[in-house]
């Protein structure tokens, strides 16, 4: 038991320390991969680190003082969410904390009284409304498949959860696009500032504030891919290979979708993600419960 | 338990005093003293109950003289309703009042000989309800003292009938105590009808055309429920020869017909679709009325009765239909709330939605869901009462309760805005009460059997829409601009006392609910179902408490750390030249244009036009099917 606690603490500490490096690297790879898909050379894979370093060297410039501590709280709760997952807590609790974190981000954008930032915040809320049902159903799916909500128990399952949760997995991949702010669902804020709502939710963030936002996104990215990994992990140590392979595939797929699709409107996003949730997530869970 | 008769009768006496005292100040003081007395009595009751050590007490087997008073009361109520119906030409409603009353009286006089059963039941659930009614309801009365003063200063067009208003509030509290403590069906019915008529009178307080229309809607819907209740009483008397709610529950599944009829009455009272419109209409009344109806009393009476019935509903067709109605209500009301910009209307839809969740929990009727349902009821009462009081206070100060006008309230009415924010996050965010028990309910639905998976799916969707309407309200409050026009805060100290008390309760309950569960609710569950289950593990609960602290401390700590940081404040980007600190800009012709920020309401998707009728029809269909199937099934 104590050994398990040690492992859980070690994994959590590793996440907190290493996630920004991994996330930053992923972000760099994303740009590289995107560039190659578009026939460009692309920046170095370490470019994201250079960018953030530069952001932190700038002066702190805000619309109002509230932005700073609400952004700080957002960053804290994102790290906390990931830490809960890696420490093996209840999956639903992890997702609820994620929602609390997202709420801080929306509040940070809204408190500026800026039109672009506010519209970005509103769109972020629609995004939350779109992905939230699938997220909850995924947690329920894990419970039905493995008999526990606790991540610590889920990773000890005899077989991979994907075998019982194919529908939930596809559904989760769908909302992952929303969560990663990838086209066609980069509704609240894309990674490019040339859209009609400027930079959406991050319009009023600059310098260290934006740097903090970037780092939080790195943490979130690692957290989300860990969720993908959770579908493939089992008590068999070899499943780690499956996790790595599938996460890379998912990563590649997300970049590919980003580069090959145009942005949809928010109502299309809402309709499509709810339909996917109901058809894939809902049916998957119904079947699981029927054949339990 | 000598205090029980006083607890029920004292509010009626206080009502009489309120009605007679015409001096505002004296009345205010007397109201506060009466509330204090009620609270003391509730605490004495709680102390006696706990020190006595018995889990459930059945009292007053013979109480004939009280029955006569009640019969007189029922006739009086009937005459009052008939008089008002004639006055406002709403003749059909008369039938809904006369027939049940006559039915009950006939059953009592020429009906069968009935077994002598207890008339009062004191157990953990009824004591809990007494605490909610006494404490939350009492605090609402304290709030009302200040509120009504400001209300009539602001609304000079309405006649000031405050003494009548306070009298009704106290009658309401008394009736609620009677309702939750009664075991005899006729007694419950008597108090049930008092709350129906009382809410009708409270909603019609301003006597405007809208108020009268809405109050009659509330009246006929609740009387319809009372009609169902009366049929259940007559049926029980003839079939089972007793009038005890507890025995009725024990006799299930034989007693499915009366159980279903009483559940039907509870559905009308707890404003489930198709009966939600009366509660939505109730917001025309002054805010203390809404707060009272929505949080501590009226609607909770319906939930209370359903929770009482839940052992009989568990694993039955009736229970399944009740949970379907509850889940439909939960989902659609939360969607409808998105399209509303009137603060009180959002709160009303949110109440309907949360009640739907409690009803679903009661309908499923497993140990876990009832446990979650009771906690949802507690947390909802406290949080919703706080929110209504905040909206009322904001309305008195800024003369609007539209969420769009609450832009930047955090700088204009800081104290009220902070209280409101606390209420809002208490309603939907981790790690606060409502969310924890939504979580618990979700787990319990899954564990309660495979036929409840659809409830899980509905819950998932309903949670996401809930998230949306609360978050956008919250954002409106914090979205401030240095040029926002400040407001005069006209809130009285008495109102603040009540609101701060609620705010403290929201936090304290979040920090202590695991103890409340261990020492109070779980024993009740094991009494009723004969089994104990650990619903949320201790480690999760500890983490929840840590999270509660984090939500407050982390922003505060970061704020204190970064407060003195060197920073440059710039105007927001609006792709033009800012004017008035970002509230206006120059357009391309060089004219100054004003800029307004507005929330999303998604009328096309979630508007009342599109969804309200549909949800009412869907709810009505399920109610009819349920009544036909359950009653028909039991008769055949």
Can you put this structure into words, describing what you see?
The complex is a heterodimer of chains A (292) and B (636). Chain A contains ten helices and one strand, in the order ααβαααααααα. Chain A has 292 residues and is mainly α. Chain A has one domain (2-290). In chain A, helix 1 crosses helix 3, helix 3 runs antiparallel to helix 4 and helix 3 (66-86) runs parallel beside helix 8. The mean pLDDT of chain A is 91. By secondary structure, chain B is mainly α. Chain B has one domain (7-111, 120-557, 597-635). In chain B, 75% of the residues lie in helices and 3% in strands. Chain B has 24 helices and six strands. A three-stranded antiparallel sheet of chain B has the order 4-5-6, with no helix packed on it. A two-stranded antiparallel sheet of chain B has the order 1-2. In chain B, helix 1 packs antiparallel against helix 6. The model of chain B has no long low-confidence stretch (mean pLDDT 90). At the A-B interface, strand 1, helix 3, helix 4, helix 5 and helix 10 of A face helix 19, helix 20, helix 22 and strand 3 of B. Strand 1 of chain A pairs parallel with strand 3 of chain B.
- Total E-strand runs of chain A: 1
In the residues of chain B, how many domains can be counted? 1
Q: Say how many strands of chain B there are.
A: 6
Q: Approximately what portion of the residues of chain B adopt beta-strand conformation?
A: under 5%
Helix/strand class of chain B: mainly alpha
Query: Which ranges of chain A are low-confidence, i.e. pLDDT below 50, for 5 or more consecutive residues?
Result: none
**What shape does the CA trace of chain B take?**
globular
- The radius of gyration of chain A is 19 Å
> How are the strands ordered across the major sheet of chain B?
4-5-6
Count interface residues per chain for the largest interface: A-B, 68 and 67 residues
Order of helices and strands of chain A: HHEHHHHHHHH
Mean pLDDT of chain B: 90
